[in-house]
Structure to design on (557 residues):
């Protein structure tokens, strides 16, 4: 059976990571992985929530060696953790945070480095080995697991590294502002480091000055792997930006103007990646040059009834994409927008069906619906949130939001949450968008004081 | 700690309450919140429960205070955990750190 080496680095002294700017060699990394693999608890499923990207990567690699499956959810709400236990009763949580309070057996990442750093052979992993489940929220309230095998993950990120021009043998230092547990961060920082002989940065800086400081202390060539939200904040912060050799963006489409600003400010090309949790990365574009996305060579798109299915190559099974796409020849497409049921708030994707399920499952809620507002003209590229209407005469906003926070990712919490007497359902029970829009307008006119987030008081 | 306290005391203009109101207005405007800035309790947490801001909002707020007051927020600064504990804490931090 085909197997693929854990890392592509050709020498034990090649750099795999930078922690606080200090290089970690392949020799040290392999020793850390081997050591951790021997001390992990029983249980075939790992919820790896290590915040430090190096520790996450050692934890993931050790799980590969111990034939444990990593679980990569999109949210950590208490309800989701309970569902995770139902899915995998032997799951344990691997964490580097002493304050971690997930209701799971906990395994603290060992802080002591492995003692034995004698050179060792690079482990080979069976290409067919099931290495991860990534979760999407699904549309019924139950998260949907998606299988990821080692060979397909590797095929995806090797093509990705080609596209980014960082597969040529030079070691690039990769700084990510996205978590290692999110599919984009997992592929673009963790796997791309392992499989393209690059080096990841253990830190995940948040504020613009922290991002700049971390980037500046990495050796060149260096890559910033980020999102439209972080790039917009970086460019708007009025600070000196260090030079970079490549900028990568994903999670939402970047405006051509922001892409141009980023290229000029960092003095580097910016490449956008398109993908989904289910498929991983499947297309890319140089945003300043073209609005067309180019598919990974072995991946194809099939358009059917206005919906786009991705399949082939590393994609595990034909997958319905959440966006409306228009083909431009065999290998290219343009993005026209989201399909009706799906929302994407700051890179977190969910279906309105899933959100409505949770809203209506709260005791005391008689009827309720989430609602996508029009883009607000004044928001200037900021994140537009969801609104919700709810019929719940015996609940107040604070307790309803508390219940909701237990169930869904906070990014989807409604703003505003509007209490109404009834929803404008048609005779068939449907909620026409026009009716919701006029309900929203009416609510704004009659009762501005109740519009916002009353729990702020 | 005492050094920080004296720094806070030296900062006299504008009045703390006025600065709180000004910052509340900036937050409401930057985040498109449909509430009156005066309704933000000075003592309630800004992050998570309370006002309900999340990390995306915090980035937006960071951008606004950098433009308005010349302050660059940092994750590693000592006071970081305290800054968003309430509007009052945030206003004190701004008063102590502002460059403009």
């Amino acid at each position: 059976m085909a197997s693929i080496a854990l890392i592509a680095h050709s020498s034990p002294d090649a750099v795999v990571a930078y922690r606080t700017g200090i290089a970690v060699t392949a020799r040290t990394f392999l020793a850390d992985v081997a050591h951790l693999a021997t001390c992990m608890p029983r249980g075939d499923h790992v919820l790896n929530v290590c915040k430090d990207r190096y520790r996450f990567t050692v934890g993931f690699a050790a799980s590969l060696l111990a034939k444990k499956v990593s679980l990569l959810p999109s949210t950590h709400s208490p309800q989701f953790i309970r569902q995770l236990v139902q899915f995998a009763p032997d799951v344990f949580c691997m964490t580097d945070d002493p304050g971690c309070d997930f209701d799971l057996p906990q395994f603290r990442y060992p802080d002591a480095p492995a003692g034995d750093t004698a050179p060792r052979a690079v482990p080979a992993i069976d290409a067919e080995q099931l290495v991860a489940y990534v979760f999407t929220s699904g549309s019924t309230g139950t998260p949907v697991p998606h299988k990821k095998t080692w060979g397909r993950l590797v095929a995806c990120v090797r093509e990705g590294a080609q596209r980014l021009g960082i597969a040529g043998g030079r070691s690039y230092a990769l700084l990510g502002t996205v978590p290692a547990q999110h599919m984009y961060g997992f592929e673009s920082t963790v796997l791309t480091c392992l499989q393209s002989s690059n080096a990841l940065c253990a830190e995940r800086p948040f504020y613009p000055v922290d991002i700049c400081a971390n980037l500046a202390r990495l050796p060149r060539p260096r890559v910033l792997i980020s999102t439209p939200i972080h790039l917009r904040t970086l460019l708007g912060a009025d600070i000196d930006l260090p030079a970079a050799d490549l900028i990568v963006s994903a999670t939402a489409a970047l405006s051509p103007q922001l892409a141009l600003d980023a290229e000029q400010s960092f003095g580097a090309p910016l490449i956008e990646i398109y993908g989904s949790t289910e498929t991983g990365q499947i297309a890319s574009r140089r945003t300043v040059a073209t609005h067309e996305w180019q598919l990974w060579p072995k991946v194809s798109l099939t358009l059917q009834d206005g919906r786009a299915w991705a399949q082939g190559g590393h994609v595990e099974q034909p997958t319905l994409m959440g966006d409306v796409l228009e083909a431009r020849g065999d290998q290219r497409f343009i993005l026209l927008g989201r399909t009706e049921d799906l929302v994407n708030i700051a890179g977190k994707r969910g279906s309105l069906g899933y959100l409505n399920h949770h809203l209506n499952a709260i005791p005391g809620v008689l009827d309720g619906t989430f609602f996508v507002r029009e883009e607000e003209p004044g928001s200037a590229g900021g994140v537009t949130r969801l609104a919700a209407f709810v019929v719940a005469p015996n609940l107040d906003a604070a307790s309803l939001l508390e219940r909701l926070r237990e169930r869904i990712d906070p990014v989807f919490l409604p703003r505003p949450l509007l209490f109404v007497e009834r929803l404008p359902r048609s005779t068939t029970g449907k909620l026409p968008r026009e009716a919701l829009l006029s309900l929203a307008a009416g609510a704004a006119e009659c009762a501005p004081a109740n519009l916002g987030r009353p729990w702020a008081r | 700690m005492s050094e920080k306290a004296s720094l806070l005391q030296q900062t006299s203009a504008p009045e703390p309450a006025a600065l709180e109101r000004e910052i509340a207005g900036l937050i409401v405007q930057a985040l498109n919140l449909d509430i009156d800035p005066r309704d933000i309790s000075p003592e309630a947490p800004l992050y998570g429960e309370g006002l309900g801001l999340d990390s995306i909002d915090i980035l937006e707020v960071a951008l606004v205070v950098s433009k308005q007051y010349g302050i660059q927020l940092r994750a590693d600064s000592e006071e970081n955990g305290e800054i968003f504990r309430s509007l009052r804490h945030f206003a004190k931090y701004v008063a102590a750190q502002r460059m403009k």
